Amino acid sequence: MIGLGVMGRNLLLNMADHGFSVIGFDKDSQKTGSLEAAATAGTVVKGVGSLESMVQQLQVPRKVMMLVPAGKPVDDVIESLLPLVEKGDVIIDGGNSHYTDTLRRVKYLEEKGVHFMGMGVSGGEHGARTGPSIMPGGNERAYQHVKPLLEAIAAKVNGEPCTAYMGKDAAGHYVKMVHNGIEYAIMQLISEIYDILHKGAGLNNDELHQVFKQWNEGELQSYLVEITRDIFLQKDDITGNRLVDVILDKAGSKGTGKWTSQDAMELPVAVPTIDIAVAMRTISGYKAERVEAAKIYANTVKPFSGEKQAIINQAGEALYTAIILCYAQGLAMLFQASRELKMDIPLQDVVKAWRGGCIIRSTLLKDFYTAYSNNPQLANILLDGPLAAIVQQKLPGLRSVIVTAVQQQVPVGGLMSALAYFDAYSTERMSTNLIQAQRDYFGAHTYQRIDKEGSFHTEWGA
Ligand code: 6PG
């Protein structure tokens, strides 16, 4: 393992815990020095002071993984490794690299006979140590060399490892990118529901904790709902109050959500809830302007007058439906990208790998798994019969919550975008006939007709 930051170190120790002999290297000698002391007694873990020494001690074919920041550091590590490795060795990038970089690296190294694999790892620092979700892609023969290791260290659901081969070339990093896009979208939806219940319905942190606790015991069971439940109880060491209330409302991001949106537009495929999640993090950054605008418009949430429990129930249904619609967008993107980029991504295995260990793990994944088991070529999970029945049953809650939120001035762009996606996707005849007419009017862009084959142009207004 090259790079012994929190993720690299924990993943390496996880490997050792499963009986694999491991060696770690970091250019920061302190990190290398403290590695062995952190290992579980009886495991084989070595920290070495140079790449040369590390590579020399590996069995052939060598399996070298790096967990370093995305971008130039990955290329630098590759260049330092190249004189040391041989044909047939496997180099794995386990960071959040952009898939186009991975594609370039796969080709570059394949020319030299070295296998390069892009591998998504999800689950944060705790997951890395105890069982992450792992999304490897690239050369399938190279994958076979690391398959037993990855299956051993991955999270397990019903005894099955939360990892599988994700497809050719950069498929592993592509799947991880979309995973993160869905992660952004679900986080946005949860934060909107929090706004509705907190500012709108007046629930305090204890009540919010109870609501999320109850939700997490039912159909909404998921990692993100679970941690949200706990967040409401966390005390602030400085004020003694709840920590969530003193956290500044400016969201950070490392870019993977944005990449998902950008690539969706390139394909093209519609992922509006991911787009809006990125946009809302961006707007959150304009704090000073928002403060000014809030004064001009006297914009505050108007308290709800309705019965609290009714709003809570509707919010639960709205969140559940909107989350399904987020997965629908992300998975449809993977379906399309797999075809366009010829990655052969097995969607059934993707949702299987996401069932445990990762940030977007949720009880819903088993329904998606069933859907893809019945039809591996499903273009969109909304076309699956049993899932369609669930969406139809829950949709009224989503519509009602949006209507209420809009009237009470709660910004719910994520929920609205999910509903708009559904309403457009399930519409036989959209209003885009008018757009075609306008395009032809001002630009002679031509249009097709519903009653005849071919392209047509009209001298409009003539
Ligand atoms: C995971 C996460 C992780 C990601 C963080 C931060 O699956 O463990 O997706 O890889 O880096 O969630 O992402 P942002 O800083 O962009 O929110």
UniProtKB/TrEMBL annotation:
Residues 172-461 form the 6-phosphogluconate dehydrogenase C-terminal domain. Substrate binds at residues 96, 122-124, 179-180, 184, 254, 281, 439, 445. Pathway: Carbohydrate degradation; pentose phosphate pathway; D-ribulose 5-phosphate from D-glucose 6-phosphate (oxidative stage): step 3/3. The active site is at residues 176, 183. Keywords: Gluconate utilization, NADP, Oxidoreductase, Pentose shunt. This is 6-phosphogluconate dehydrogenase, decarboxylating. Its EC number is 1.1.1.44. The keyword tRNA-binding does not apply. GO terms for biological process: D-gluconate metabolic process; pentose-phosphate shunt. Pfam families: 6PGD, NAD_binding_2. PROSITE patterns: 6PGD. It catalyses: 6-phospho-D-gluconate + NADP(+) = D-ribulose 5-phosphate + CO2 + NADPH. The keyword Oxidoreductase applies. Catalyzes the oxidative decarboxylation of 6-phosphogluconate to ribulose 5-phosphate and CO(2), with concomitant reduction of NADP to NADPH. One of its GO terms (molecular function) is phosphogluconate dehydrogenase (decarboxylating) activity. Belongs to the 6-phosphogluconate dehydrogenase family. It is an enzyme of class 1 (oxidoreductase). It comes from Filimonas lacunae.
